[in-house]
Design goal:
Blueprint: H1 5-18, H2 33-49, H3 56-98, H4 103-116, H5 121-149
Helix pairs in contact: 1-2, 1-3, 2-3, 2-5, 3-4, 3-5
Length: 171
């Protein structure tokens, strides 16, 4: 397996799964934290096993691969989970808001949420938006990971060629 694919696969599966598990996925509210962590994990694993120093380009590629894998997992698993959890989450939200609003506002919000129904279209749109965000933030995580974990210096520059002949040359 390509030395970039295996770390990206591990980071992508982690970010994809953690982004769709109910309540665990709440950490994505903080700048898509699972995506950044997945990209950073992928770049860490790459840096750890790479025989040569990793560049920022390597971090971006690894983060992109991890983000694409995580986005696919998020779409495949996230849509059914979100659709199944929709009524539960809506009731939880209503109960939390009802405690902080007066009765008329809470009832208006309840009527508005119930009028939206259980359509799958918003679930699919949200999943696609999340997939794009996971991809972008995983690339950022890959870049951050290489900057944090790559401590080796690049290959040293070759010595300059010897000077031969020309003005001021003394043999």
């Amino acid at each position: 397996m390509n030395n970039k694919v295996k770390p990206a696969l591990i980071g992508g599966v982690l970010l994809g799964l953690l982004s769709v598990i109910p309540f665990v996925n709440a950490l994505n509210i903080c700048c898509c934290a699972w995506a950044i962590i997945g990209g950073m994990l992928a770049s860490y694993l790459y840096v750890k096993n790479s025989p040569v120093p990793a560049s920022t380009g390597d971090g971006a590629v690894i983060g992109a691969i991890a983000g694409a894998i995580g986005a696919v997992i998020s779409i495949i698993l996230g849509i059914p989970i979100s659709y199944a959890m929709g009524p539960t989450m809506r009731n939880l939200l209503l109960n939390l808001i009802a405690k902080n609003l007066d009765r008329a506002q809470a009832e208006a919000l309840r009527a508005q949420l119930e009028a939206s129904g259980d359509s799958i279209v918003p679930v699919i749109v949200n999943a696609l938006i999340l997939a794009v965000l996971l991809f972008v933030f995983a690339v950022i995580g890959g870049l951050i990971g290489v900057a944090l974990f790559e401590k080796r210096k690049g290959s040293p520059l070759p010595p300059p060629p010897p000077v031969t002949g020309g003005p001021g040359f003394a043999a």
